[in-house]
Amino acid sequence: MAERWRLLKQAYYILRYLGPRVVWLRAGVYLGRMLGTTARTFRRRPWERIDLATIARICREVVHCVPVRPQRDAVHAPCRTTRGVAPAAAGDDLVGALKIAFLATGNFSHVRQFAEFLVARGHDVHLVTYTDRNLAPIPGVTVHELAGDVDPRGAQHRKWRYFLVIPRLRRLLQTLRPHILHGHYVTSAGLLSMLSGFKPYVLTAHGSDLAGSMQSPVWRLILRRVFAEAALVHAGNAYLGELARQLGVPEHKLLVVPLGLKVERFRYRLPRRFESPLRLISTRKLGDVYDPQTIVAGCALLWEHGIPFHLTFAAGGSLEPTLREQTVALGIAEQVTFLGGYDYATLPGLLGDHDVYLSASRWDGTHLSLLEAMAAGLVPVVSRIPANELWLEDGRTGLMFTIGSARELADALARLTQGDVDWSVVTMTNRRRVEAEGDLQKTLPRLEERYLRLVADSRSRDRR
């Protein structure tokens, strides 16, 4: 019992550090639920038990490394670098290069494109990851693994590992002294960026991180504080930008720019006539937010109508065992292939072997997988959500179906075989739009420009 009270006391100081009373009281409810989930899991699976002393030790480490009352007269206070983390040296020359630290999970492929672009522009790029995974090397990028083994999409009872990452992140940033800290995913990396104490930090909302959090009152309160401390919030499309505005992000701190991709990597080809079998592919993760069960159910209905197909799930995910069982139950196991994951370098060739791109996601940000398919000349058949409607017009540049409706998905796929639309014109239109609005070489320079402006503003305040 004494150990439990000690844990609650340490958690109180952490929550008190997070901000206004309304925030930490609501966040306390979230932490209580998280601990309750942990306790129930441990009762069911005692071999995963973690004693309270371990959690209390982690909490004490966080509290001791984060002063509750930072000094107001610190040397670097004018440039708003608080809580003990120093800014980049004042004598650095901005004309040469910026030192930029990305904070993200190591398996997040979109960060690679950011990093490669900035390295090519001559910047010193570092990737700070809080997952225990063997990362593929990125030329010119220094990788720092915090070894926290945190998975933002993993089980709820493992979220306590974030407490272990914070002190390591703070020590690393004190050593690196980057000009900019850029967190990808406003929930996990956003919260870690704020608790690291480093300024200025930039956040990118990729989609499900922000759209999914809007359903939780607790996360909305936390994100308001995270965004208030951020120097810049980058939204991948207008829909995410509007969500950020709802959480109090002012226009001067908001940058709405598509994430983009290297269009030249994807060789466009005219689609063949949709003959038997239809070659379908989904490159989305096999997780709940992407609803792959609806894709399987829709394809089963297509099979019942006598239309042959072959479906490839390129990515892996937690739902793969469930989906395999579903394909067997529906009698289409031989028509579905699970790759379990793919190398991003092989993606252009993988897309080129298929005709139709499928996505049933419930919400999304900048749907980069969709842009990749559009660039490669595939016909998109996707769920009707704001993120997809920004890029497609139902019936003219793609086909859409209601979220969770397997019947509408099957009807859309059946329409492809009727020959009433010249899909070569559709795919060429899509390719040209991606070249004009989704090319990485046109979108990321705007983000780089904001980097330079933020560092210049920080130096200007430092000289006053």
For the largest beta-sheet, the strand count, sense and barrel status come to: 7 strands, parallel
Quick one: how many beta strands?
13
Q: Helix fraction?
A: 40-55%
User: Span from first to last CA?
Assistant: 53 Å
Q: Provide a count of the helices.
A: 17
Write the element-wise H/E pattern from the N-terminal end onward: HHHEHEEHEHEHHEHEEHEHEHEHEHEHHH
State the strand order across the main sheet: 3-2-1-4-5-6-7
- The overall pLDDT, averaged over residues, is 79
What is the 3D shape?
globular
Identify the quaternary structure here.
Answer: single chain
Q: Could you say what the CATH topology of the largest domain is called?
A: Rossmann fold
- Please report which band the strand proportion falls in: under 5%, 5-15%, 15-25%, 25-35%, 35-45% or over 45%: 5-15%
Features:
six-stranded parallel beta sheet; globular; Rossmann fold; 464 residues; 17 helices; 3 domains; alpha/beta; seven-stranded parallel beta sheet
Explain how this protein is built.
About 14% of the residues have low confidence. 46% of the residues lie in helices and 13% in strands. The termini are far apart. With 464 residues, the protein is of the alpha/beta class. Helix 4 crosses helix 17, helix 6 crosses helix 8 and helix 13 packs across helix 16. It is globular and about 75 Å long. The strands form 2 sheets. Strands 3-2-1-4-5-6-7 form a 7-stranded parallel β-sheet, with helices on both faces. It has 3 domains: 68 residues, no CATH class; 189 residues, Rossmann fold (3-Layer(aba) Sandwich); 174 residues, Rossmann fold (3-Layer(aba) Sandwich). The protein contains 17 helices and 13 strands. Strand 11, helix 13 and strand 12 form a beta-alpha-beta unit. The longest helix has 24 residues.
